[in-house]
Amino acid sequence: MTLKACSMIKKQKTKKPSTKKTDPDEARFKWDNGDYARDQTLRFILPWQFLFMCKLTGVTPDEVLDRFTNDLGQESWKRRENDAVRQALVDYFVLCGYGQKWYTEAEIRQMFKELDAIGSLWPDNGGIKLIHRHALWKEKYQNFWFKKWFRKLRRKP
What we know:
By secondary structure, the chain is mainly α. It has a domain at about 45-150. About 45% of the residues lie in helices and about 0% in strands. The chain contains 5 helices and no strands. It has helices spanning about 50-55, 60-70, 85-95, 105-120, 130-150. Helix 4 (about 105-120) runs antiparallel to helix 5. The chain is globular and about 40 Å long.
């Protein structure tokens, strides 16, 4: 015996298979692997002085490194209202000479200003729908930002 669906029931639309990547471990960019993979397990020897300070102040090394990378990257969702910390980290990055083989100090500072502008737009009191929209926009804008700077002449004037 075969049963047929009642005509009063709303017909289910068949969804097209998504072309978006759903695996969070999958690389977002061609270069997003190896040394530049987003999800990494790093193993290195922490200086005793750093561990002493962490233990004495009751903060784990993981917390310090996580906050350091989020503040330096001008991240939005873990953003603290302390511009001085983010500025000090930009100064640290510049003083270490990172990237100055390809970009001037002014260009590197401009990169951080642009990242800060993107990061400052986090919708604090937004609902889940707004946060989702923001995340999609942020991903697209970050891609634009990266390509803009990567394609720029990669040498000092």
